[in-house]
Amino acid sequence: MSPTSRHHLRPLNQPVKLQNVLYEIRGPVAARAAQLEAEGHRILKLNIGNPAPFGFEAPDTILHDMIAALPTAQGYSESKGILPARRAIVSRYQEVPGFPDLDVDHVYLGNGVSELIMMTLQALLDDGDEVLIPSPDYPLWTAATSLAGGVPVHYVCDEENGWNPSVEDIRAKVTSRTKAIVIINPNNPTGAVYSQEVLTELVEVAREHSLLLLADEIYDRILYDGARHTSVAALAPDLLCLTFNGLSKTYRVAGYRAGWVAITGPTAHAAGFLQGIDLLASTRLCPNVPAQHAIQVAVSGHQSIEELLAPDGRLTQQRDIAVRMLSAMDGVSVAEPRGALYVFPRLDPEVHEIRDDERLVLDLLEQEKILVVHGTGFNWPAPDHLRIVTLPWGTDLQAALERMGNFLASYSQ
Ligand SMILES: Cc1ncc(COP(=O)(O)O)c(C=O)c1O
């Protein structure tokens, strides 16, 4: 008998807790793209908000400080992250209304915002607790809520109303199990930047129902046309608010995995939750230490993102190309993004009869070798949207959208 046939190996099935955990941005369509690449095809990847592959280089000072720190960054750090980096975060927020008394002990560093989102929801939720999450959303929020045993409850953002959250819908969806509301501003995937008035209304709902505020503000400095960003924390000094941010987008070092969460507002009622965050920060030992050394230099001094966002800056120009070309397509409309790195166009169902939007993006990939993400991957209920990143150089973006326009003109399901 051969050693391999001696034992019966028990099947290792996917655990039930992963059933509702989805991340389509790197899902089956992206896997098919990887296969096509392995076969020698060149795929234009417009699916991930990853600036570096599109020639957005990090400021030299960031690389310099990280390289200089390597010899002394071999050991674990404090679980929350190194003190100079956390102090730099406190200084960064001194200029931002809403964080006047931010305590350095209330800043936690993470391997990207992603890890901190996971930790927060694990520390917060009992089975069946509900979290209000926008639809469309950045899908990690939904996935992390499900994984933590919670129930994601999606509130509608209204395309007709500049993709602003519907406060009416939020109010209708609050229950006795609702623990928190997630606000993604500037928004991924819609590019909406919420006004102070809209945010005030959202905070008021949180106040009335004693909800924890989870503010994902990773794009707070990626704003177009002079749009102004208001931090949720500024409007809610009387509520517990966790503000998430990091180096991935504004500083173009998504691969370094450096993020933070800043905790503001009253904490006495939330000792258990905050001890849970401490516990989970300890169990992950610490965030990647070399990348922590990039934080201080990144957040202080010259903010090179501003050049990219000027009217003639690369990011603005690319956003303009995407909006112009999509709007010119038959049966396609798009709300102009005022922040972040994406467009989320609508395919009019009267013109484009799409029943399965994942099928659509797969067909686009097979035929045109262009990879985008279907709208339902962002917990949007109808198969009538796509998300496209606006990171490629204008000429590449233009060529890709031309091909996409031709593809859509003759596509049917
Ligand atoms: C809204 C939003 N939040 C969080 C993240 C995760 O970022 P990080 O690279 O810091 O994990 C992203 C990444 O695309 C994002 O778009």
Distance between the amino and carboxyl termini: 53 Å
What's the CATH class of the largest domain, please? Alpha Beta
The averaged pLDDT comes out at 95
- The SS-based structural class is alpha/beta
User: What is the radius of gyration?
Assistant: 22 Å
Query: What string, H for helix and E for strand, traces the elements in order?
Result: HEHHEHEHEEHEHEHEEHHHHEEEHEEEH
What are the low-pLDDT stretches, counting only 5+ consecutive residues below 50? Answer: none
> Which molecules other than protein and nucleic acid are bound?
pyridoxal-5'-phosphate
Strand content: 5-15%
- What CATH calls the topology of the largest domain is Aspartate Aminotransferase, domain 2
Q: Provide the CATH superfamily of the largest domain.
A: Type I PLP-dependent aspartate aminotransferase-like (Major domain)
Number of strands: 15
EC number: 2.6.1.2
Protein name: alanine transaminase
Organism: Ornithinimicrobium pekingense
Domain Aminotransferase class I/classII large: 44-392
